[in-house]
Amino acid sequence: MSVFNAYIALLGKINGEVKRDVPLSRLTSLRIGGVAALYVAPRDYAALSRTIEVLGTQKLPWVILGRGSSILASDEGYRGCVIVLTGEFDELSVDGSTGIVTAGAATRLGKTCSAALTVGLSGMEFLAGIPGSVGGALSMNVGTERCWLNSIVHDVVSFKPGGGLVRRRAVEIDWGRRWCSLPADEIILEVSFSLQSAKAETIAQEMETHLAERRILPLGAQSCGALFVEPRAASVHELVRRCGLRGSREGGAQLHPSQANYVVNRGGACAADVLALMNRVHSEVLAYSSVDLRSEVKLLGFEV
C-alpha cells in the first residue's frame, strides 16, 4: 500500500484535484477529524475511473465523501483516499415536459429541490431543508416518517469498479428505512427523479412548511445532523428527555437542548467526545425505555 505512489500516478494526470494530508475537519459538517492520507476530486468519469484503478493497484482503501453531513471522522484520520466528486457530477438538468429531473451525485439536494420548484414540478417538497448531496441522500434513502426519497426515484446510474457504468430503475433496487440495496462498492454518479406538474405557489408553500420543521439548529452550527434513526416507539428527543440527558455534554460535544437527536460541536470537540455522547445516549435509552437506537451517523477512519 503506497499513498505516495498513488499520489504521483494521479497528480497532474487526471482532470481533478489531488492532494495529500487533507484535514477531514474541513470536509465534514461537524468540523472534526484528523487528516486523510490522500484526497482526490475528479471532475469527470475518466478521472474517477483512473483514480479507482490507481487506488486498486496500490491497494489503498477509498471512500466517497459528499457534503460531509452524517459523517463522524476519526481523530486519527483516514489512511486511505477520500474522493469528492465535482465537475460533471455536480450538474443538473430539468425536463418540464416529462417531469424528469436529473442530478449528479455531488449536486446539493437543496439545489435540486429549487430547480424543480422553478419549473413547477412537484414531488420533492418533503426534502426541503435536508442537507447534503443527492448521492448521499439516495444511499441513505432520506425523507420523513410519511415519505421517502425512493418514492420519486426514476433511475440511478452508478459506477462499478472493474465493471463500468450500471443503470438501475428504482424498482430494481430494494429500499428500507435509511437504507437501499445498492452495492457498497459501487459509486452513485447520477439520479433521475420523476415529478408531477403543479402550481409553483403550492410547491413553495409546502417546501416552506418542511423548512420550518427542520430549522432546529442556528445557522452556522457545526453538526452532523441526526445521530440516530427515529424509532417507531417515540422520538429520539422524547426518549432522551425521559432519561434526563437533554443538553448533555462530553468535552466540546453537546446534545442540542431543543432537539436531543442532534449533537453540536461547541468548540474543540473531538470524535471521541461525540462517540462517548452517542454511547451514553444509546445505553441509557436502552436501559430506561428498552429501545435499541440505531446510528444514522457513518464512521470514517475508525478501526472496525
Query: Under CATH, the topology of the largest domain is which?
Result: Uridine Diphospho-n-acetylenolpyruvylglucosamine Reductase, domain 3
What is the distance, rounded to the nearest whole angstrom, between the alpha carbons of the first and last residues? 19 Å
List low-confidence stretches. Answer: none
How many distinct domains? 3
What is the beta-strand fraction? 25-35%
Task: Provide the CATH architecture of the largest domain.
Answer: 2-Layer Sandwich
Helix-strand sequence: HEEHEEEEEHEHEEEEEEHEHEEEHE
Instruction: Give me the count of strands.
Output: 19
Tell me, briefly, the overall form: globular
Quaternary? single chain
State the name of the first-level CATH class of the largest domain. Answer: Alpha Beta
Classify the secondary structure makeup into a structural class: alpha+beta
Largest β-sheet summary: 5 strands, antiparallel
**What's the mean pLDDT score?**
93
Instruction: Give Rg in angstroms.
Output: 20 Å
Explain what you see.
Helices cover 26% and strands 29% of the residues. α6 (236-243) crosses α7. The relative contact order is 0.14. The strands form 6 sheets. The protein has a 5-stranded antiparallel sheet. Strands 1-2-5-3 form a 4-stranded mixed sheet. A 4-stranded antiparallel sheet has the order 15-18-17-16. The chain has helices at residues 3-10, 45-57, 109-118, 134-139, 200-214, 236-243, 271-289, and strands at residues 16-23, 35-42, 62-64, 71-73, 78-83, 92-95, 100-104, 121-122, 153-160, 164-169, 175-176, 179-180, 187-194, 196-197, 223-226, 249-250, 253-256, 259-265, 298-300. The longest helix has 19 residues, at 271-289. It folds into 3 domains: 3-87, Uridine Diphospho-n-acetylenolpyruvylglucosamine Reductase, domain 2 (2-Layer Sandwich), CATH 3.30.43.10; 91-214, Uridine Diphospho-n-acetylenolpyruvylglucosamine Reductase, domain 3, CATH 3.30.465.10; 223-300, UDP-N-acetylenolpyruvoylglucosamine reductase, C-terminal domain (Uridine Diphospho-n-acetylenolpyruvylglucosamine Reductase, domain 1, Alpha-Beta Complex). With 304 residues, it is of the alpha+beta class.
